[in-house]
Amino acid sequence: MASSKVQAIRKALNNPAILQRYYYTGLGEMSASVRLGRLLDYSGLKISTTRSSLVSWQQIVDDNILFVGPPRVFGDALHKLPVDLDLVMREDGVHDLKTKPNQPALFADDFPSINADQLSIPDNGEVYALVSRMPGPLGSGNVMSFSSNHSPGTHGAVEFFTEPSFARQLIAKLRKSDGHLPRFFQVVLKVRYRDTVPTEISYVTRRELQPGNTSNVR
Predict the structure, then answer these.
(1) Whole-model pTM?
(2) pLDDT for residue 28
(3) Which of 19, 151, 175, 200 has a CA-to-CA distance to 123 between 20 and 30 Å?
C-alpha cells in the first residue's frame, strides 16, 4: 500500500480499493510442498496445512511449524521468536546483519521482474534462498522456513534439503568442529534457474542461532 508505484497506478485509476487475496501460490512453492510432503509422509507425524496468513500464535506455540514461500506473509512472526536472526530476507535479497570485514552485506537477487532492463521471456535468473530453523516461542517447539523472493528459489531450497546428494553437502557444511550439528541455524543458498526451473543450487553461507535472545521480540 505504501509503494509509490502502486499509489501512482491507483491515482490513474481513480483510487479504487485494494483488497488482500491469498487464493494462489507459486509453482515453486507447490513443487516444494509436494517434495516435503513425500518426505514427511514417512515420519509418522500428524501433519496439517493452511495458508501462512492464517497461522495463529497458539498454533506456533503448540506445534512445530514449517513455512514455505516468500516472507511477505509470515516474516513478521519470525522476527518475534526468541532468537536473534543474523540473516533476513528483504525485497532485494538476503541481508547479513552481522557481516564481517571483506564479506558481502547483501546477497542480491537478479531476476526479470525486479530488473526492468532485463525483461525477457522465458524467466531466467539467479536468486537467493534463506532457510531458517528457529526455536518456538516457549523454546519447546521448532519453527522452520524455506523462503525466497521468487518461486524457483523456494523450490531450489527445499530440493537442497531433501535430495540426498545435496543433503550430504549440507550436513558437511553445518557440522561443527566438535562433530555435532546445530539445532538452530540459518543457511543461504544460491539458485540459478531457467524458465522457472532450478538448474543449479549452491551453498553460500550459514549461521548458528543461539536461542534465548530477545532483542527481536516486540
Answers:
(1) 0.81
(2) 83
(3) 19
